[in-house]
Every structure is written in C-alpha cells, then in structure tokens.
C-alpha cells in the first residue's frame, strides 16, 4: 500500500457538485492498494498514520515534528487513489496493473477505514467516495507532504503452531534421534546401523509426529 500524506489546515471532497466530506486541521491522505497487499500492510499503514509525528509542539508553531494526529486531536480525510500504484518505467502511458482490482480493493479499503476509526475516534475519520470522480481540495499546511510505502513494513510474525504434550514428547525424541545420527555419521562416516536395518512394525518417531500434527489441524 502507498499513501500520500499531506498536513492540512482544511480539506474537502466534492462529488457531482456536492461536498460529501470535509475536515479542518489534520491529515489529507491519498491511499493506493497494490495487487499483493494484505491486512498486514493495511494495519502497518494505520499504525504509521496515527503515530507519525507530523505536527509541531504548539498550535501556533510553524515547524517541528513533535506531535501525532492523535496528540493534536486532528481529523483525517482519506481518499482511495489507485493511480498511486502506476508503473511508469516504460513509455509515456502509465500502467495500472500494479493496482488491486476494485472488486477486491473496496473490501480492503473499508477494513483500513474501520481500523482507523477503531484505533482513533470514529467521528474524526472522513472518507471520499470509492471509485467516483472527485474534486479534492485542501490547504496544505507548510506545505508538508510525506509518502508512506508498506514496502518498508517489517515482515509479519508467523506464530509457532501449538503442540500438545504428546506432540512435544515425540518432537523431542525425534530431535534427539536426529542428533545421535549426526554424531554417529560424523564419527563413522556412515549413517547409524539402525537406520540401515529393515523397518520395524513400529512407525518412526517422525511419522508419529507428523500424524499427530495432522490430527491437530
């Protein structure tokens, strides 16, 4: 996801000659959603927007990066903007294949807005009209504009699978056996003789562990 974030004194969105959204002091945000974006990128962008220190210390100060939008109690006007995902490496015509299709991006954009409202104040998050031709006006304060790109987001943390006590025991025995085989192989330059013997009727520890994991899921 990409976002063009503009610090503003006021901003508004007009559709068909009617103002549908407006804010006073706060952030005007243009949001683009790419084909590979997920909820992880959306959550990263929400947290970045709400915590970005983009405002000066005092209300009358002109410059400084001391306070976030939440610190000043400002408003956010968000407008979906697929053209941010344009590819311009070749030729003179922008290529928009990098943008997520509207049929999918609408749901993700709605989730993005819901997350903003949940983590901040619902009434302070305003929106344009998804997919419409809009006239967007603002008074840029500064001007101060920052581009955020979720390519800078850290990789998502993948939780470790839950193991039952029996699975933990099997896993521990399996690791111990593998470690013993490595030591024997290093010493004898060959696998343990037990691994060369014909398989017994009992299943291997690895197979037992694998089956127990399949039962869990």
UniProtKB/TrEMBL annotation:
Superkingdom classification of source: Eukaryota
Regions that span the bilayer: none
Chain spans, region Disordered: 169-217
Family matches, as CDD domains: Dtyr_deacylase
Keyword tags: Cytoplasm, Hydrolase, RNA-binding, tRNA-binding
Ranges of Polar residues composition bias in the record: 192-204
Entry GO terms, CC: cytoplasm
Residue ranges with Basic and acidic residues bias: 169-191, 208-217
EC annotation from Swiss-Prot or TrEMBL: 3.1.1.96
Enzyme class: hydrolase
UniProt subcellular location: Cytoplasm
GO molecular function, one term: tRNA binding
Pfam families: Tyr_Deacylase (PF02580)
Reactions performed catalytically: glycyl-tRNA(Ala) + H2O = tRNA(Ala) + glycine + H(+); a D-aminoacyl-tRNA + H2O = a tRNA + a D-alpha-amino acid + H(+)
Primary residence: cytoplasm
HAMAP family: Deacylase_Dtd (MF_00518)
Family statement: Belongs to the DTD family.
Record-given protein name: D-aminoacyl-tRNA deacylase
Organism: Microbotryum silenes-dioicae
Lineage, broadest ranks: Eukaryota, Fungi, Dikarya, Basidiomycota, Pucciniomycotina
Gene: BQ5605_C002g01211
